[in-house]
Every structure is written in structure tokens, then in C-alpha cells.
């Protein structure tokens, strides 16, 4: 029961991190399209969408796996969620730093 609760909390946090990266890209694209000369920033964000999509997919899969009753599945879901969440967080930080530097 405790392992299941930990798996649920970890996977939920991972889904939030992955959704945060996708949301940041969506806001970046929207803002870039509204301002003149923002097309390079929109193109940069468009290139990053597959990374955000994979991260969100992995973390949602981990959340789905954690909904089972098996302890082994909960451990696997925790590891999958940790990996997906950490990867999404790192990708978000990379996107933010590259956008701030203007490397797009």
C-alpha cells in the first residue's frame, strides 16, 4: 500500500513536470506568433514539441502502470516516472536557457 502511494505521488509529479514543459512551449509559441519577428522563436518551440510529447507520454504511461495492484508494477512505474519526470525537467531547463540566450 505504501509503495503504491509513493508510486502515485512520483508519477503525478512527473506528469506535472512533463505537462509544464509542454505548456511552456505552447505559451512560447503563442507569444512568438503574436509579435512581429517572432517566427524564429516559434520555429524553435516547434522543434522542441516532440521532446515534450515523448516526456508526457512516458509519464502518463507510468501513471497508468501505477494504477495497478502489483508491487512490481508500482516499482517499475516509480522508476519510469522518475526517469520521465527528470528528463522533462531537464528539457524544460534546456529550453528556457536556450531561449533566454537566443540560440534559436
Automatic annotation (TrEMBL):
Bilayer-crossing regions: 6-28, 49-67, 73-92
Domain of life: Bacteria
Record key words, sorted: Membrane, Transmembrane, Transmembrane helix
Keyword Transmembrane: yes
Protein name as catalogued: Uncharacterized protein
Amino acid at each position: 500500500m505504501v509503495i503504491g502511494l509513493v508510486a502515485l505521488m512520483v508519477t503525478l509529479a512527473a506528469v506535472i513536470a512533463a505537462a509544464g514543459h509542454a505548456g511552456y512551449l505552447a505559451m512560447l509559441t503563442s507569444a512568438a506568433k503574436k509579435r512581429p519577428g517572432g517566427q524564429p522563436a516559434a520555429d524553435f518551440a516547434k522543434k522542441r514539441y516532440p521532446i515534450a510529447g515523448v516526456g508526457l507520454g512516458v509519464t502518463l504511461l507510468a501513471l497508468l502502470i501505477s494504477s495497478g495492484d502489483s508491487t512490481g508494477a508500482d516499482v517499475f512505474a516509480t522508476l519510469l516516472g522518475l526517469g520521465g519526470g527528470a528528463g522533462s525537467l531537464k528539457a524544460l531547463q534546456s529550453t528556457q536557457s536556450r531561449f533566454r540566450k537566443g540560440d534559436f
